[in-house]
Write a structure and sequence with these properties.
Elements: E1 12-18, E2 27-33, H1 51-64, E3 67-73, H2 75-81, H3 83-97, E4 104-108, E5 119-123, H4 131-154, H5 160-163, H6 169-178
Helix pairs in contact: 1-4, 2-3
Amino acid sequence: MLKSSFTKNRIEAGCDEVGRGCLAGPVVAAAVILPKKFKHPLLNDSKQLKKADRDQLQEEIKQAALAWAVAEVSHEEIDQINILNASFKAMHLALDQLQTRPELLLIDGNRFKPYQKIEHKCIIKGDAKFLSIAAASVLAKTYRDELMEKLSIEFPGYGWATNVGYPTPEHREGIKKLGITPFHRRSFQLLPSQLELFE
């Protein structure tokens, strides 16, 4: 059972990002402040949920949240500042947009770059422990999946409608056959090292 909050009386924002391990597209982060007594029987780490459940939860989270925001950092910027810094930047950009200022940040994972002198707690597998982080994971994933599905229409042959940019065999086969798109991350190893990458 996921916990509704880390503290009893502080305003908490859960933060999570998706797309770190992808070969193409942006990294996307979300920040969510939920009411203290918020409960939901379905809400869990977005990776554990079916697409239909994530889509349903996305609307319910937005309606129930005291504040929420989603932000992205582009594949070009990932190549410039590296994926870890891009992940932190995406979280910061999401926090910038919150209409309510949090007093504590609950961050999924083990590292974070401090934000505006607000205390933060890094929680490994936090999206399976706290509802606000799980909610952030759902908003980030649904946003990014929709983005990659739209790009898959413009760039068919890579399987982005289903793999959303992750390095699946279908995605790597598309790179071998078709080369790379303007949305591929050039700083990532797009193919195994023994294969030549062409543009």
